[in-house]
Amino acid sequence: MSQSTSTLTARLAVLVRPGRSRALAGFGLAAVLLLAVAPVLLSPFRLGLLGKFLCLAMVAVGIGLAWGRGGLLTLGQGVYFGLGAYLMAMHLKLADAGPGGVPDFMMLYGTGEVPGWWEPLRSPVVALALVVLVPAALAAVLGWAVFTRRVRGAYFAILSQALAAAFAILLIGQQQTTGGTNGLNGFRSFFGYDLADPVNQRMLYLVAAGVLLVMVVVARQLMTSRFGEVLVAVRDQEDRVRFLGYDPAAVKTAVYVVAAVMAAVGGALFVPIVGIISPADVGVVPSIGFLVGVAIGGRATLLGPVLGSIAVSWAQTTMSEQFPSGWIYLQGALFIVVVAFLPGGLASLVTTWRRRRPAREDEPGTPATPDAAAAPDAADLLPEGSRA
Amino acid sequence: MTTPEIDLAAADALLGDDTARFRHDYLEVRGLRVEFGGFVAVRDVDLTVTQGDLRFLIGPNGAGKTTLIDAVTGLVRAAAGSARFGGAELLGRATHRVARTGVGRTFQTASVFEELTVLQNLDIAAGARRGPATMLRRRRATPEAVEQAMETVGLAALRDVPAGVLAHGQKQWLEIGMLLVQDAHLLLLDEPVAGMTQAEREETGELLRRVGSQRVVVVVEHDMEFLRSYADSVTVMHQGRVLAEGTVAEVQRDPAVVEVYLGAPTGAAEPGTATMTEGRA
Ligand SMILES: Nc1ncnc2c1ncn2[C@@H]1O[C@H](COP(=O)(O)OP(=O)(O)OP(=O)(O)O)[C@@H](O)[C@H]1O
Ligand SMILES: [Mg+2]
C-alpha cells in the first residue's frame, strides 16, 4: 500500500504544481505591475485613482471569500468599509488639529468640543488597532447572532443591506460628530507625512498596493487551507457539515469577520488616498457596487474579485465623466446579466476554456485545483428553501 | 479505470479490533415522540440497539423511520422521550454536538460535497476536532484514517475526482467512508443500498456486517432480500409506532407485520419484495 500511496502522492503533486506555479507567476506579475510599472507610467492623478481602486478591491477580496467561497451574500460591506474609513478619518482630523485641538468642522457645526468617544483616536496606535478591532468585533457579534439563528440566503442579504442603510442614516444624523452628509475631509497629514506632497502620495499608493497583495496571499491561504474546504462544504451542504460535528455558524462567522476586516482596512487606506469619506461612500449603493465587481470577475476565484472590482471602478470613473447618471443603470444591468448568464463571472470563461483544451491522458477525471471549486449557480441568490 | 471494490481488510484496520473498548456501547431510545404541527410522526418508540447487532429498521413509506433518525441526530425536535448513547442524552443537543458524541448518519439521498474531491470529503469528515492552527494550514499528507477509508470504500484511485462525478453507488460508499473516518460509534444509515447494483449491495452488506461488529449500526432499508442476507435483528415500524421486533424469521412470521405489508392477514406470506420495493425503483 505504501508504494501505491507514494505513486498517488506523486501524481497529486503533478496535478497541484501547475496551479501553484501559475498562481505564483500571476502573483509576481501583478506585484511588478502594481509596485514598479504603474508608479512610473501613471501621472500622480492617475496613480491616486488607481490607489483608490485598490482600496475598493480590498473589500472585493473579502467579499470573494465570504460570498464566493462561503455563500454569504453580504450586501452591507459598506458598513465595515465605512467603520475603517471613519475611524481613520477621525484620527487624521484629530492629528491635524494638534494635541488637545478641535477638528475644524466641529467648530463649525458642533459644540466646539471633542466628544469623549473621539478622544482615544488621538493616539495613532489606538486608531490603527481600532480600525481592525471595531469592525472585527461588530462582524463577530452580528455574524454569530445571525448565523446561529440560521438566517441565510436572501434573508441574510436583506439584513446586511438594511445594516448599511441604517449606518449611513446614523452618520448623516450626527453632523456635529461625524460631519453629516459632508463626511470628513480636508486631511492635511497622514501619521506625520504631508498629504500634499506627491512623494507621500506615491508612498500611500505603494502601501495600498502592498496591502492588497498581502490580502490576496491571505485569501489564497484561506482558500487552499482545510478551513477553505470546510467553507465550501458549508456553502454547498450546510446541514451535512453539521452532521460531521462542525458548527457552520462558527465557520461562517469566521469568514464574515475576515471579510469585514479586509473591508475596514480598505476603508482606512481610502481616506488618506481619496481625501474624503462621506455617507455616500458607505451606504446601500456603494455596498452593492462592491458586489458587482466581484460578481463580474468571478466570486469563487482568487483573482476574479480583485480584477473585476478594479475593472468596474475604472469603468465607473471613465463612464461617469461622460454620462454622469447613466452609470448606475449600466452597473445594475451588468450585475443582472452576469448573475443570470455567467454565474461564475468572467473567470469561469477562463476555466471553461482551459477545460476545452485536450486533457492529459493520465489524469483521472477532472483534476480539482483549488480554484476549480467553482461558484454555485445563480440559485444561491434565492432563499435556501427554494433550492432542491 | 477498474471498478472500485470494498476492501474489508482496510475496514478492519480502520475500525480496529479493540472490542473491549466499545463493548458497552448501545443506543437506547425510550418513549420517543415527534410531532409535526399536530401530526404525530413518531409515537412511544422504544428501541435498544447494541454493538455487534446489525439492526435493520423497516416499515412502509411514511412509517417514521427517517423521522426517528432525525430526532436522534437533532435535526427535528422530539416532543417527548429520551435517546441515550454512551451514557449521554442526545435529545435536546444541537446537531453538531450530537455528532461530536460519536453519532453519524447518512441521508436517504446521498449527500456528499459535490464540488470537493473524494479526498477532501473524507478529510473534512475526519476533521471536526481539529484546532484552528491545523484548519488554517493546507493538508500536506493524507491522514492515516482517511487513507484507510478510501481503501475501504474502494475510492483510493478516485481520490482527486470531485465527488459530484462519482456514480450513484460510489457516492453512497463515500458517505459510509465519511462515517468511518468521522469515528462515529453509532451509525444511522438511511437506505444505504437504494439504487445500487446487486454486486454493490453484496459488498455493502459485507462491509456493514464488519462495521456492525465493532460499532452500533442501524440500517433503514426497503430491500427485503438485502435484509434477509445481512440483518441480525429487525425492528418494524408502522404509522409512527414499533410494530414488531426480533430476528428476521420472527418478524416474518408476525401476523401484524404480514398484514401491514400485504394488506391482508393471509397466512404464510412473508414481507415480500413485491410490495416493499414497489414504487421505489
Ligand atoms: N418536516 C416534516 N413536516 C411534516 N411532516 C413530516 C415532516 N417530515 C416527515 N413528515 C411526515 O412524517 C411521516 C413519517 O415520515 P418519514 O420520512 O419519517 O417516513 P419514512 O419511514 O422514512 O418513509 P420512507 O420509507 O418513505 O422514507 C410521514 O407521514 C411524513 O409525511
Ligand atoms: Mg425515510
UniProtKB/TrEMBL annotation, chain A:
Highest taxon of source: Bacteria
Compositionally biased intervals (Low complexity): 365-388
Main location: membrane
Subcellular locations according to the entry: Cell membrane
Region (Disordered): 357-388
Membrane topology recorded in Swiss-Prot or TrEMBL: Multi-pass membrane protein
Keywords noted in UniProt: Cell membrane, Membrane, Transmembrane, Transmembrane helix
Protein name, per record: Urea ABC transporter permease subunit UrtC
Automatic annotation (TrEMBL), chain B:
Record GO terms (molecular function): ATP binding
CDD domains (UniProt xref): ABC_Mj1267_LivG_branched
Domain ABC transporter: 27-264
Record PROSITE patterns: ABC_TRANSPORTER_2 (PS50893)
SUPFAM superfamilies per UniProt: P-loop containing nucleoside triphosphate hydrolases (SSF52540)
Keyword Nucleotide-binding belongs to the record: yes
Superkingdom of source: Bacteria
Swiss-Prot/TrEMBL keywords: ATP-binding, Nucleotide-binding, Transport
Record's protein name: Urea ABC transporter ATP-binding protein UrtD
Species in which this protein is naturally found: Isoptericola peretonis
Classification of source organism: Bacteria, Bacillati, Actinomycetota, Actinomycetes, Micrococcales
